[in-house]
Amino acid sequence: LRADPALAARWTAHKTHAITAFTLELAQRLRQWHPRLHTARNFYARPLLEPTATAWFAQDYAQALHDYDYVAVMAMPFMEKVAKPHEWLAELARHAAATPLGLERTVFELQARDWHTGKPVPDAELLKQVALLRRAGVRHIAYYPDDFHSNQPSLAAVRQAVSVRETLSGEPEGL
Hints:
About 45% of the residues lie in helices and about 15% in strands. It is built from eight helices and six strands. The longest helix has 26 residues, at about 5-30.
């Protein structure tokens, strides 16, 4: 399979389509009980940044934007062990913006914990990432995990990040 690029491309398209068809069939069946059901597909960041990664992950970002209501991209630079997290996030946002429906239907999932170190991502860093993504035109931002028992991220930081109040500059208050 790997020796024949054309065959490998057909296999990638087939498995990507099969996963999508299966999840959309499940959603359609659920709609009989929940008619307003929305769908979201969780995505690794690499298929956005590296088109060849589609073969490894069976994830086609542009197609998923058409098939699902939302695509939730794991915008997690510490998980990816990138050297320059802010530049990496900006590049991810640029790729989404350059794809039709990208900013309208993509949820950027930030990480609130660095799983490699086991430590929380500091509130100040999480807020910088939110502000960077907003400046890039990103409309939908989420974070994971929410450790409310340990107040991490802190309620004050979350309020700043999701505030609907805006300053005169158009930025959400606190960013």
